[in-house]
Amino acid sequence: MQVEKVRVSWEEIAAMVAGLAESVRGEYDVLLAITRGGLIPAGLLAYHLRIRNILVAAVEFYGDDGQRAAAPTFLQFPADPLLRGQRVLVVDEVWDSGRTIQAVTERIEQAGGVPTTAVLHWKPERSEVDARPDHHVVETSSWIVYPWSPRS
User: Fold this and answer.
1) Alpha-carbon distance 75 to 101, whole Å?
2) Which CATH number belongs to the domain containing residue 49 in this structure?
3) Domain range spanning residue 111?
4) pTM here?
5) CB 125 within 8 A of CB 141
6) What does 20-50 look like in DSSP terms, one character per residue?
7) Is residue 152 one of the residues assigned to a domain?
8) Which residues pair with 35 in a beta bridge?
9) pLDDT string in tens for the chain (152-residue length)
């Protein structure tokens, strides 16, 4: 079965981030961007929410061969003291299987932080976890091609 590819423009990204900013309004101590795809939406969202404290989580689920691993490898993750007692807004571009963002939120909770998840696109049909994003803009089953993707 051929999956529909949807190309998203910079203008559409700007509108989605503005909508996401309205949805997530609240008090957060820190924003945590999931690399790589979440970096740009997280940076834009941080401007909208006036959040200056931005952390990064680099999580790898796929090897160089393209095969998905059974468990994530955290290549980079904030130290526990940076998360303890913090309200953490976790941002990624897409919730596909949900495994990456779930692994990140579990690590935040283990560190004593309180995560809230926000994504531009949510693919409920592909989600493999018993959770859903706290905030999302678009629900889809399509393959999303972002303007920062090398496939654009």
Assistant:
1) 14
2) 3.40.50.2020
3) 5-145
4) 0.92
5) yes
6) HHHHH-S--SEEEEEETTTHHHHHHHHHHHT
7) no
8) 58
9) 677 899 999 999 999 999 999 999 889 999 999 999 999 999 999 999 999 999 999 998 766 666 777 778 899 999 999 999 999 999 999 999 899 999 999 999 999 999 999 999 999 998 899 999 999 999 999 999 999 988 65
Q: 104 near 56, Cβ under 8 Å?
A: no
Would residue 19 count as lying in a domain? yes
Which amino acid is located at 74 in the chain?
A: F
Residues 34-62 as b or e (16 or more Cβ within 10 Å = b) = bbebbbbbbebbbeebeeeebbbbebeee
Structure tokens at 62: 């796929």
